[in-house]
Design brief:
Structural class: alpha/beta
Low-confidence stretches: none
Number of domains: 1
Number of strands: 7
Distance between the termini: 26 Å
Number of helices: 9
Radius of gyration: 17 Å
CATH architecture: Alpha-Beta Complex
Strand content: 5-15%
Shape: globular
CATH superfamily: Spore Coat Polysaccharide Biosynthesis Protein SpsA, Chain A
CATH class: Alpha Beta
């Protein structure tokens, strides 16, 4: 805990047996109270590894629900456990757990309600091996989104995120896609609800065991991102009244 705020790390897992233990061992348990692993019907031994290393809260989907569907279960479970701060960490070791302290303290001290680990700040993406086409794709989408929704982030596409309980209880994340565009829709909802978002520099690693989507799915994701930004703007103008922007409370 920090300032009596319960911190829960959620791990949305899919075929993470080779990297899960290394990721778990770097989680700072001096402040982290619970870890939740949601396995999205992996085809490897992710569940067995999770049990071996002692993760208490393990949920296994009986069918693959997708990256967004996995996160919905992660956040629902964390809130049921009484989390005040929820940190989403990929168990593929692409993002370092060593930033959990920094992210959690910003929220616990009520500086920001949402903190992202940015691969773009400090040039960590290319240094860590991000393919050049993905870097260019990332920069183009981010610039376009900043223009359309009138916000300013260094990137909208990081998978390293932390949220206050208030944010997760306010935005209607269950109205979002079960696919990869879920991440982008969630940031759109957060901005739409009036919450501020902080970013901290985050190194990243690209290696064979790290999860990554192929070119075809990257294009699908990019189109989904642009659609999300336009829907955000049309709702702001009152042209649309989308379910995803209705608050839960």
């Amino acid at each position: 805990m920090i300032k009596n705020k319960k911190i829960v790390v959620v791990l949305p897992a899919y075929n993470a047996e080779k990297t899960l233990e290394k990721t778990y061992n770097e989680i700072p348990f001096d402040i982290v109270d619970d870890v939740v692993l949601v396995d999205d019907c992996s085809k490897d031994n992710t569940i067995e590894v999770a049990k071996k290393i002692g993760i208490k809260h393990i949920i296994q989907h009986d069918r693959n629900k997708g990256y967004g569907g996995n996160q919905k279960t992660c956040y629902d479970t964390a809130l049921k456990l009484g989390a005040d701060i929820v940190i989403m960490l990929h168990p593929d070791y692409q993002y370092t757990p060593k930033l959990i302290h920094s992210m959690a303290y910003l929220i616990a001290n009520e500086v920001y309600p949402v903190v992202l680990g940015s691969r773009i700040l400090g040039g960590g993406a290319l240094k860590g091996g991000m393919p050049l086409y993905k870097y260019i794709f990332n920069r183009f989408l981010t610039l376009t989104q900043n223009i359309i929704i009138w916000e300013k982030l260094s990137e909208y596409h990081t998978g390293y995120r932390s949220f206050s309980r208030e944010v997760l209880e306010t935005i209607n994340y269950h109205a979002n896609s079960d696919d990869f565009v879920f991440d982008n829709q969630m940031l759109s909802q957060i901005f739409y609800a009036g919450f501020e978002i902080a970013e901290i520099t985050c190194p990243t690693k690209y290696f064979p065991e790290a999860s990554s989507i192929n070119f075809r799915r990257s294009v699908k994701y990019g189109l989904g991102v642009l659609k999300t930004s336009l829907v955000h703007r049309f709702n702001k103008w009152g042209i649309l009244h989308s379910e995803m922007y209705k608050r839960k409370k």
